[in-house]
Amino acid sequence: MIGQPAVRVAFLALAIVVMTAAFMAGSFLTPFQQTMVGFAGINILLATSLSFSNGLTGLFSLGHPAFMMAGGYTAAILTFPVARKAMMMPDLPVWIADMQAPFLLATLAGGLVAALLAVVSGFPVLRLRGHYLAVATIGLIVIVRVVINNADGVTRGAIGISGIPRLSTLPWIYGWALVALALMWRLKSASPGRAMMAIRENELAAAAIGVDRARYRLKAFALGAFFAGVGGALWAHLVTNLTPASFGIPLAFMLVAMVVIGGSGSLIGAAVAAILLSVVGEVMRPVERELGAYGLIQITIALILIAVMLLRPKGLFGSGEPFSFLKPKRPRSMQ
């Protein structure tokens, strides 16, 4: 599935260990601990998808929270109990109001809506580069939040949706993280990944050999958005409460920090950084509460980010992967 036999064996072993632990977690973790481990898994999914879309093509998008909102609200509305929809969401179309979709279908729908949003917004936005693109994708977050706030007959506006079924279990969360990692690894190892990295390294040279820069950028942007939408759906069904304020600039900063610390373009690096920063956040949370110094978690993560950029500007693993047997196989023409 992923390419080289060694990689297949390594990934299969990882998947077995992770999914076994996820299924057994209920017997030795408290509900609170399961929630924290679930957040770490969602962070892995989000960080690896952002590392793929940003790291491989050289984009600097901060729009993941917008795609999470789109996916989270879509999935939450689809799985919301029918008996409460008429009262809480009176403007819903009849066919949605009378339906309570299975969790898998709702999660896929959330990812597809987020990917569609990425395609529609990507045509104008991806013409920009660097900090111009970053500002434009921040604008996308604002636009989606304003739309949700004003569509109160469907989304309940700023009040948010409460009472969402708690359907996100650890097997669901880590299963999706493994699917995302496998798919993005396969693409990175194949010709699409090579084309994206060529665009990142030298746009003119990539164009000279026939690489369609706009098409590959849009594909990477849409795939990253799809998994961000899936992450939003998992997040909504983990906390069972959804408001537009849940997805903003601090979340975008956190995800970019994970990518930069792990190494832009490194999927395993992004996953490791996601786990690291999730642990740091949970360790610092009681300290923050005890001292009354709210914002201490963000300050700590910012200091870690600054230290990494000063001491190791390329991140923990650069744009590669940490283990030699996991490195993508080079095409014969390049050997």
From TrEMBL:
Cellular compartments per GO CC: plasma membrane
Keyword Ribonucleoprotein: no
Main location: membrane
Membrane spanning residue stretches: 7-29, 35-53, 65-83, 103-123, 130-148, 168-187, 220-239, 251-279, 291-311
Pfam families: BPD_transp_2
Keywords: Cell membrane, Membrane, Transmembrane, Transmembrane helix
Protein topology in the membrane: Multi-pass membrane protein
GO molecular function: branched-chain amino acid transmembrane transporter activity
Subcellular location: Cell membrane
PANTHER family: HIGH-AFFINITY BRANCHED-CHAIN AMINO ACID TRANSPORT PROTEIN BRAE (PTHR30482:SF10), HIGH-AFFINITY BRANCHED-CHAIN AMINO ACID TRANSPORT SYSTEM PERMEASE (PTHR30482)
Protein name: Branched-chain amino acid ABC transporter permease
